[in-house]
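Good day; I would like, with your permission, to put a structural problem before you. What I wish to show you is a protein chain and, alongside it, a tokenised description of its three-dimensional fold. Here, with my thanks, is the record as I have it:
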Amino acid sequence: MVALSDVKRWNTAQLDEIFQTVQQRLQTLTHSGDDFGKVMPVDGWSGPSADTAGSAHHSLMSRIDKMAAGASVVAKAIGQAADAITGVQHAITNAEALAGKYGYRIAEDGTLIDTFPAGHPPPDIHPEDRARIRTQVADAVTQALRTADDIDADLASVLKRAQEGDFGTGDETTVTAAAADGARDPGLTLPEPPPNATPSQTAAWWNSLSPAGQAILLHDRPAALGAMDGIPADIRDKANRVVFTQRYDDLKRQRDDLQHRMDSLNQSDPTQQNEYFDLERQRDRLSGTLTGMDQINDRLTNPLPGQPHAYLLGINPQNSGQAIIAIDNPDTAVNVATYVPGTTAGINDGMATDINRSDAMVQAAQRAGSPSTSVITWAGYDAPQTLVDAASTSYADHAETSLRRFQDGLGATHQPGEVNTTIIGHSYGTTVVGQTARDLGLPADNLVMVASPGVGVQHAGDLRLDGIPPDQVGQHLYSTKAPTDPIPALTNFDNPAADTIDPLGPDPTTAWFGGQTFQSESTNPLTSHGDYWLPRSDSLRSMGNVIAGGRP
């Protein structure tokens, strides 16, 4: 592996100069070579000497063709290397600046040295923030050296192959054509992210690429980038909008095809009825998905006056559909909240309600004094679609890893500096949040549980928040339920002796759970399960206060 000190000394100006020289020499070679190619055959010259001259000419032209093809690839690879090295050195410079801000110095061998006396930071640097930055810097240095190794090995391979005449066929019609053939070789390849990369490692990989390399991946692999936790929000948004259009057009074609097949059947014919109704069910499911995607697209492309920009951080229309939409940029906001909806969540049920709730929480946080706020609707799991399904913990079981990785990704891409993070669960979403905090822990300052059927633990101290001692988690957990909300009423025993047999766990608003509560005033049993985000409601105001870093 190349050394950090070596990479920092790599001189891209020299590579640029070599690139220009090779390009100039290649231009001379192609012009002179093409002129030489016209020398033979000579009109009227035949016989053994003419044959010998023709053979020698063909041999020389073959060598010139391969030389031109090789020079073309070499020039391309040197230009790519200069560009790629710029990205690596920029990543190292940023890592050094970030390390210095948090009391670390990057040694010549890439290790981190603590510069604070006895390793104790000043009180304005939170130990948890410092630990997170240490991981990010270490990952950034490791990935920068990994990318530098890739550049070095790729360039050496191209130079060796050119020296051995591996480029070009030697039979091109002109030297100019041979050079063009060489230019079609990919040259240097872009490094892949590390296998099984964490979000922090993914962020380090992305930041080690040059802008040109990033643009190539964004163009060629939008689906992969859009799904990666650790990629900046603006990049994921660009990638996922491309994916969104592709998926939407494909689903629309599928629905139209189903409709055409239905139109060819006779609904009143008993022999065709089963096929007709089966196609109708498939068509209606696709129509529901397209309606949900229309609602997402409307918020992305037609915000109301004063509404912040929306970012599409994830889209998957399969099954009930998954989508992640951020209101304003979570990478730059001071206060970031993730809202996890519950039963029936997904694209098929429509996304407008959940997106509107995120917009409402952004406004509530602004009213509470938040200088900048991002609220994310995280329908990034297959949610139960019926109340019967919601009695099972399996949907939350399968969502845990995805939610934890997403939250880690937010931390990996957020600009340097402190950020206040809140995770809000509604209905079965509280089960998802609770189980994730129980089993994997969550990097969050506060949890908010709204209308919970249970969060998977018997006491707030059984939940884990990164950097918060178990006996203090209850001070960071806020819960609410409306007096007439049927979900908490019908899914909880509200009895400490019976709570242990509830598969989802007890109601977190109970006095014995150990958390904090706030008021929700809705008294309409038909609507109270969704009334927590009504304008000017106490519940919405309280959520805004918590998101802004305060208390209900």
Q: What stands out?
A: The chain has a mean pLDDT of 91. DSSP finds 15 helices and ten strands in the chain. The first helix runs from residue 4 to 9. The radius of gyration is 31 Å.
